[in-house]
Write a structure and sequence with these properties.
Oligomer: single chain
Largest sheet: 6 strands, mixed
Order of helices and strands: EEEEEEEEEE
Strand order of the largest sheet: 2-10-9-4-5-6
Length: 122
């Protein structure tokens, strides 16, 4: 049974850092490319960053390029999102999911975890 679990969110001041973690109790994430998404009001979930199954290839949305780093530890079945220089507009719920290796897009039918809340506030 697929069960994605995101963690690591919290309250941080502008300019601060957080590291999010994504794991799955029902499958081996090392077999998949994985991406982070975040809730965008009125738009659903928007793409943040993705990493290939091997961890070699990554892709970022322009809004986070240079500030966020996605990486993985396949031995721990975990994908991370290191967030630095956080801005007020980064505040929202963050989710992870497996994505197609060819283009880092979501599969047609996916299940989502609960997500983890990131709040950037002074």
């Amino acid at each position: 049974q697929v069960q994605l679990v995101e963690s690591g969110g919290g309250l941080v001041q502008p300019g601060g850092s957080l590291r999010l973690s994504c794991t799955d109790s029902g499958r081996t994430l090392s077999n998949y490319a994985v991406a982070w998404f975040r809730h965008a009001p009125g738009k659903g979930k928007e793409f943040v960053a993705a990493v290939s199954a091997s961890g070699i290839n990554t892709h970022y949305d322009d809004s986070v390029k240079g500030r966020f780093t996605i990486f993985r530890d396949n031995a721990k079945n975990t994908v991370y999102l290191q967030m630095k220089s956080l801005k007020l507009e980064d505040t929202t719920i963050y989710y992870c999911n497996i994505v197609r290796a060819s283009d880092f897009r979501l599969y047609d039918s996916v299940s989502w975890g609960q997500g983890t809340q990131v709040t950037v506030s002074s």
